[in-house]
Amino acid sequence: MVAALPELTVAHPTSLSEEVRLALELRGCDVERRPEESLEGHLDRLDTALMAWFRDSGAREAFDALYRHSHARVVSWLRWVVAEQRARLDPVELLQDTFVNVYRYSRGFRADHGGSFRVWVRTIAANVVRRARTVAARLRFVSSEHDLLVAVESEHRSPQARVMDVEETHSLRDAYLILLQHYLAAYEQLSPRDRRALELVELDGLSYAQVCDVLNVGHSNMKMIMLRARRRLLQRMALSLGAAESEALAA
User: Fold this and answer.
1) Which three-class secondary structure state does DSSP give residue 35?
2) Domains, in order of start, for the chain
């Protein structure tokens, strides 16, 4: 789990500690601003160097330095996106989720040019915003639908019908928990690559193209990985549920 992130502070290249500057220089990074380099280009280049250092070392000091140096510009971009989309989201919360994913998917980062981190982190942040908007919309829909149904049904349904509804809800919940247990058992039997692919696509909401970069596979191979992973998952669940049903009938 990622530890608590530092407080928001505005960073500048000169705010890098001597230890961080030395670590970057030892990796061949020119920390000072070049004569022909814009301030934005300088900041981007240092962000990319810090991210590459964290990717290669996994060092906490590298991640902290990256966060302190880049977060102000990332949250500014998030504020712009939220305002542009008129979304009721907190940019600071989105920032935290963005850097959690930076931490988790650091192995998939590629430092192709000086602005690589800016492009990469904005892609991650855009996915975070999209997922947050989807979740918020679903919560609003469920809440409004639930309130409406409660208001209508409370006027027409008998006490006996309400008791039956409660019992059915409990039964559905128990059935869902049983299904979830079989799903988790089947998931644990998959190969590490299959589990990772399913996690990235179905849990984190990444596109196939993004997962290709994380897993370092081609797009056609990625499709085959997902197809086979889902097929194996369903087959194992079918076997497990079939065995459970046979045991229940025997009992």
Assistant:
1) coil
2) 13-132 (no CATH), 159-250 (1.10.10.10)
